[in-house]
Amino acid sequence: MTESSTTPAVAVLGTGIMGAAMARNLARAGLAVTAWNRSRDKAEPLAADGVRIADAPADAVRGAGVVLTMLRDGPAALDVMRDAAPGLRPGTVWVQSGTVGLEGFEDLAAFAGEHGLALVDAPVLGTRQPAEEGKLTVLAAGPEEAREAAEPVFAAVGSRTMWLGDDGASGAATRLKLVINSWVLTVTHGTAEALALAEGLGVDPAGFLDAVAGGPLDMGYLRAKAGLILRDGLTPPSFTTATAEKDARLIVTAGERAGVRMDVAAAGAERFRRAVEQGHGEEDMAASYYASFDDPSTIL
Q: Exposed, middle or buried by CB within 10 Å (0-12, 13-18, 19+), for 185?
């Protein structure tokens, strides 16, 4: 905690699309924020918002009441927290917000236990725009004693917090996030494939969208992703294709552990892989569209 307030000082580790927006909103909410990113140039713009930029994870977390991690996957988060360990103190609240999968989360929970950290499992729902607007949905599970410190953080980055239990090590929030992501990725691929089929059959995609407008088959997400594809608006990405592939594979692995076959997710991971191979890895995941074509340069 800072000396002048009960509001915790916050360290944000990872300032990609989501982490940077979250750090900015934390600072705008009046919290003392220090940020670190492996590529410092991605963190530097946050200084204009009053965020202190640290050279190393241990420097970033030293004196922080809350450490928020928004890193690519479980191994990346574990490596960074190991680097941060010299600056951590027992009782620090660790808000783990990346999508790390079941095995990754178990390793992080073990690290938290070894270092006496109060772990809050807190993946978020939303992409670039809701992150920038502070309108994420936070899925949270963590000990009651950590909530006082975590709540100002969640209020700054999100519009809604769903508490799923008081055991941060249970993985309850991580498991729900995987279920939700399975749906998000399925709708993304469905949109991409429908538009690809329209292209292949010579159907005006506007006709498809008009036919479903206002009915049970229509949805805002369909409109958003279709718009990106049709307007060639895949950059800047809301959520990259490369990260979507990673998440799809985490979903498949989680299903395997539970004895559940995730055939659609497995096929979707392969679609994302092909799109990445075609050079769309850093574009929005709606670039799944291009995976439908052997020669994407000939379309649209």
A: buried
